[in-house]
Request: fold
Amino acid sequence: MAKAIMEVLHYPRLDTVIMVEELIRKAGNYPTKAELRRKLPKKMMYQTLLVILDYLEESNKIHVDKKSGEIVWIWNPEGVKKIVEKGLIAK
Reply:
C-alpha cells in the first residue's frame, strides 16, 4: 500500500475488508485504531488492520486524522450523486 511501507505477511480476505468497512461505516467514526480493533467481531493481526485501513483511506472511504488518530467514514455516494446532478462538479 502507498502509506504503509512494510512487507505484508498476510493480505486480508475480501470478507474481512468488508467487515471492517461496515463497522466503520455504521459507527461513523472511531477515536483510535486500537478502539476499532477491540470492536471487531473476530480477532485480527494489527498489520492486517493497517493494510485494510490504508486501502479504505486510499479509496477515499475513510479519513485517519494524523494528530488524533481518529478514523472517520467520509464516503457518501448519494451525496456525490446529488452534487453531480446539480452540476456543482464537472464530470
